[in-house]
Specification:
6-stranded mixed sheet; 718 residues; Methylamine Dehydrogenase, Chain H; 32% helix; 5-stranded mixed sheet; 20 helices; alpha+beta; 39 strands
């Protein structure tokens, strides 16, 4: 029979996750299901309005959601009529049981409104639980099937706040395009140009948008409207606007390069620190024994989170049923009430954790990084230097109370890390090619470390040399294998032609993130007065006993536990009385299972997981006179025995990067404690001890090797 209409050219093709093929034209949708007798079925208002209840001649888009709903968006053209009917369009959803579509705007439940603008311009899954939706009224989020707008929904608090800030300056965040990602940074086009979403926060890259075609002339008049955006494997970004197409080389396919080129360095630094802190938190939380008090609190927290997620999914299912008239609104209201009750319990639990277990609280509630606040906490003689990996170079961020400076060094990551591992292997006598245990022993020390130490000084220090010239205490925030590098041993040629080490000019300390700096900067002085010394638990460390004897003569109030008395039981007994805890024993980094790394005591091995749940409420400093206490495993170099103590609330940890010489340790530790008793801060005390060692052995070329004096580092508060 003759048709009264022509379906029109193909607009979209979708193959859903069950293998069904959907083809849209202007007037119709064709569904092909090979499992249903190879049936090809046409749906459309002009074909059969009972099975396609949308008055439209313009089918705009078809999408499949994360929870496998099929949605069809039909344009609202109600200024047009067909046989007296306004062509109002609407949002349709496929009902598999009826083999027909349901119009969500024509739900039997008239008291319920869609919680988002129904005209969807794009749908971008960003992980297994979340998708970003572009609409005519800005962006929305599909979270486990529960749709919520960033304009109004308070449940997505961080994203909603950052989105609102952008909208105040750039209100036209509608017509959102499908997103593309560079690393874990997602880019979306809209009427305001390009916006970014990452880690639950929205950003507006003003510099980037100023590069759009003819932006200076037409940008403020709608010239930033982006129709499509894509990225290739080389990190090149392609953006289509009314005025042309821009091709932008992001500097590589990593998000960090894009951030530093298009945002303020402060915003990029916040992004880097948030990522690092989240990675640290994941490692530590997974290592907490579930039979411990902290483990019990963590289980309760996780149970609440699971309950909230389950309710979120139920609300999503009920929302779908409500839209199709199956469910009553009271069901969603009761679920919302139940969800609110669990959220109150969660808040109460977090308040308890903040008081009883602040270390666990900090891991569960990753704090936002505020660069301005961090700068205000720096003293006049202090600065932070953070090293940031970039695809084609190295980012160096200098932060002091007076200024923030960012510099980019052109060097490949492979070249930099190869140089680091060569010098570390020479200094420590370890093989850089076996990274399963950080670095493993080799016999040769023939690598040209002097040259490499100078080369690394030129890469890592010289770019900020003028900035740190008059600063004494320098916090280093490394990444990757830079955690293995003793920065104090970086060297340059002085005016007299002799080699001079960085430690001779500055006092060096380490932190893993800006958030850790914020925590330790707010540390309240310990009220305890005692130093507790544990040594030689298995009788194989005679120099450890001498080390303890030497320390006892240097500091006043101290208590020793040597040999069989050096037990974990004793440690637990004195934990609330201790101000300084010194451990002269064996340490071990466990291959592949970082949480099972340990420190030896007479009665047991104290694992990294044990350290985290050990309560040391008044301890101001832990000294790990053990081997490898600052080494981490490949890919998680920050996860060390030393970091475990800072995670448990200790503000300062002195630790080592490689197996240490017992006699040298005795010398370094004696001078270190002398400086502490002279009221020097920890950074300066260690620097003084290392300078004294260099001066004392200046005629002994063997002892001048950094192997002997450079493995000691300070992590945390000066």
């Amino acid at each position: 029979p003759k048709r009264e209409y022509v379906a029109g050219p193909v607009k979209n093709i979708l193959i859903d996750r069950s293998g069904v093929i959907w083809v849209t034209t202007g007037l119709s949708i064709f569904r092909y299901d090979k499992t249903d007798k190879d049936t090809l079925t046409e749906y459309g208002f002009f074909k059969d309005p009972s099975r396609f209840p949308s008055y439209t001649h313009m089918i705009y888009r078809i999408i499949e959601t994360l929870d496998r709903r099929i949605w069809v968006i039909c344009s609202d053209e109600r200024h047009l009529f067909y046989r007296g009917i306004k062509l109002a369009g609407g949002l349709l959803q496929w009902d598999k049981s009826k083999k027909a579509f349901v119009n969500l705007q024509m739900s039997k439940t008239t008291s319920y409104e869609l919680p988002f603008n129904w005209f969807i311009t794009s749908y971008t899954p960003i992980d297994s639980a979340r998708a970003i939706i572009g609409t005519l009224n800005g962006f929305a989020e599909d979270y486990y099937g529960n749709i919520r707008s960033f304009n109004t929904d308070q449940k997505a608090e961080n994203a909603q706040n950052s989105y609102s800030k952008i909208k105040q300056q750039h209100p036209s965040l509608f017509l959102g395009t499908k997103g593309v990602n560079i690393g874990n940074i997602w880019l979306f086009g809209c009427a305001e140009g390009v916006v970014c979403y990452t880690n639950g926060n929205w950003y507006y890259p003003e510099r980037f948008n100023q590069l759009l075609p003819d932006d200076q002339e037409y940008g403020q008049y709608g010239g930033r409207l982006v129709h499509a955006i894509s990225v290739d494997k080389y990190g090149r970004i392609f953006i289509s606007t009314d005025l042309g197409t821009m091709v932008y080389n992001s500097g590589g396919s990593d998000g960090m390069s894009f951030l530093f080129r298009n945002f303020s360095s402060a915003e990029a630094l916040i992004y880097q620190n948030q990522n690092q802190l989240q990675n640290e938190a994941a490692v530590v939380l997974n290592s907490i024994p579930r039979n411990s008090p902290s483990g019990a609190l963590l289980d309760e927290y996780n149970q609440n989170q699971t309950g909230l997620l389950s309710l979120e999914r139920k609300k999503s299912e009920n929302q779908k049923n409500l839209l199709t008239g199956i469910e009553k609104k009271v069901s969603i209201d009761s679920l919302s009430l139940e969800q609110e009750q669990i959220m109150k319990k969660q808040v109460q639990l977090l308040l308890q954790l903040e008081q009883k277990d602040p270390a666990l609280f900090q891991l569960l509630k990753v704090p936002p990084v505020d660069l301005l606040t961090s700068r205000k906490k720096l003293k006049d003689n202090e600065c932070l230097i953070q090293y940031i990996p970039m695809s084609n170079g190295l980012g160096i961020q200098f932060i002091s109370g007076q200024k923030v400076v960012f510099r980019e060094i052109k060097i490949s990551q492979k070249q930099l890390m190869d140089s680091v591992m060569k010098v570390v292997s020479w200094l420590s006598g370890r093989n850089p090619n076996d990274t399963s245990r950080g670095i493993t022993p080799i016999k040769s020390k023939s690598l040209p470390a002097e040259i490499t130490l100078g080369y690394l000084y030129s890469i890592l220090i010289r770019p900020v040399l003028n900035d740190i010239r008059n600063i004494r205490n320098v916090y280093i925030i490394p990444y990757g294998k830079l955690y293995y590098l003793p920065f104090s041993a970086l060297a340059y040629e002085s005016e007299t032609g002799s080699r001079r080490y960085l430690v001779e000019d500055h006092n060096i300390g380490f932190i893993s993130t800006l958030s850790l700096f914020d925590l330790i900067a707010g540390y309240k002085e310990s009220t305890a007065i005692g130093a507790y010394l544990f040594a030689d638990p298995d009788g194989t460390l005679p120099f450890a006993r001498q080390e303890i004897d030497s320390i006892k003569t240097t500091i006043g109030s101290c208590f020793e536990f040597v040999g069989k008395e050096a037990t974990v039981e004793q440690l637990e007994r004195i934990s609330d009385k201790c101000k300084i805890l010194h451990l002269a024993t064996h340490g071990h980094l466990e291959k592949g299972k970082i949480e099972q790394s340990w420190i030896l005591f007479a009665d047991k091995k104290l694992t990294m997981a044990d350290i985290f749940i050990t309560k040391l409420p008044n301890v101001e400093m832990v000294v790990l006179s053990t081997c490898e206490s600052s080494l981490g495993a490949e890919g998680i170099e920050y996860a060390t025995l030393a970091r475990a103590f800072t995670n448990s609330g200790v503000p300062t940890v002195v630790s080592t990067l490689w197996e240490i010489n017992d006699q040298t340790t005795q010398e370094i530790m004696t001078d270190f404690y002398k400086a502490i008793t002279d009221q020097k801060n920890k950074f300066e005390a260690l620097a003084i001890a290392q300078r004294n060692f260099l001066e004392r052995h200046k005629t002994d070329t063997k002892k001048l090797y950094p192997f002997y004096w450079a493995p000691f580092i300070v992590l945390g508060r000066p």
